[in-house]
Amino acid sequence: MPEPSVMVIFGGTGDLASRKLMPALYDLARQRLLPSAFVVVGVGRGEMTDAEYRAQLRDAVARHSRSRPVDEDVWRSFAERLTYVSVRAEEGYADLRRRLEQLDRDLGTEGDRLFYLATPPAAYVPIVRSIGRHDLRGGGWARIVVEKPFGRDLASATALSRTLQEVFDEDEIFRIDHYLGKETVQNILVFRFANSIFEPVWNRRYVDHVQITVAESLGVDDRTEYYDEAGAMRDVVQNHLLQLLALVAMEPPIAFDANAVRDEKVKVLRAIRPIREEDLGERAVRGQYGPGFIEGDPVAGYHALPEVAPESKTETYVGLKLFVDNWRWEGTPFYVRHGKRLPKRATEIAIQFRSVPHHLFSEDARQGLEPNTLVVRIQPEEGISLKFGAKVPVQGIRIRSVAMDFVYGASFLVDAPDAYETLLLDALRGDATLFTRQDEVEEQWRLVDPIIAAWRTGPDVPPAYPAGTWGPAEADLFIARDGRRWRQP
User: What is the pTM of this model?
Assistant: First the structure.
């Protein structure tokens, strides 16, 4: 159980607070995982009473909570912990400080505070400096949760960390990547390090290659202005995809604690072979979706979206071939890809093992045999599948690949917690294991910055692919040159 505390959400009336944070906090309250002395202070620019704020959040929880309908008894108790403070200018922080001190006196929250930056990134620096100027940290522990993007390149990420460290120590800074809160992502560590049968084959001797796919059928929607500046590389590859790769490739940590786990992830990120400008043709591919069909419905291409310039070179698809230059993985390619407007929403990690060294059975017998593949499905249906060869029950030898499937819902008969539930609870407890550290973020930017720069300043434009397909033809050629092909999730 976390200690008594106050959670201050800057951007408390925004989309993130309404869709993710408040529903997650309500679900934690429903599970009785929040302390009795716990208060949420929403901070926004508009004027609003506590009653109006609670009514607004009641509607948000009803729409977005994973447990529906809303339990009115739980909501009534939870709503009593919700309050709102308007901060339009610098003097508003004095009002916020008075409210926090009053809550400490009245409810016994002892000056323990978790600040959450649920605002546009441009507001991070002024908010953090105002926290310091007005001494909002209180007399107990203080932590701050920062949403991605953590900068837009290495220089800005480093500058943001310096600003945060003006007010908070590094171990008080929780950089949140919601992918790390997903149940199957956490299960990668359990799967690898709580079972003895997989570790002996989890290396270059037995693994032919690894594929990591983050596919989205959605387009850019109302994020056009942000996305045209960010692109697929900054939006997903720099953070989610590289974090998944690090979890797959890392060495066993000495303990399951924040620094031990993150130390091993940093070692992987540092070992990834850089992609230089002259390597782009061989190790990187991009694309931009055009008009097409998603589930039979016509959709517009990227250039048809408002605020997208006709000459925009923003990538909506990225494929990379990465190598981890260490003892375990030397020479084993990691193929990672992410794209918008692909045929379906799917995130998975596929570890394909090498073929047997000697084919005992005839070519005709093994026509239905595919390589052994271990697939970790992260969304939409979380689970793990292992493909292996088995004899078809007919006369003679005929081999076909079959799969052993583990599905969370069927095995445990409970709903997995939402990623934000897990991460908010960890932040309140002070457990940073599933949050990214400054050196992780910097290593991720160090890898992708040269690729982004080469693509944005070069003369070429991203090849087009029709919406509803698995990316540009160049992506298929990209992996086919190595005698491999992309999996279809």
Answer: 0.92
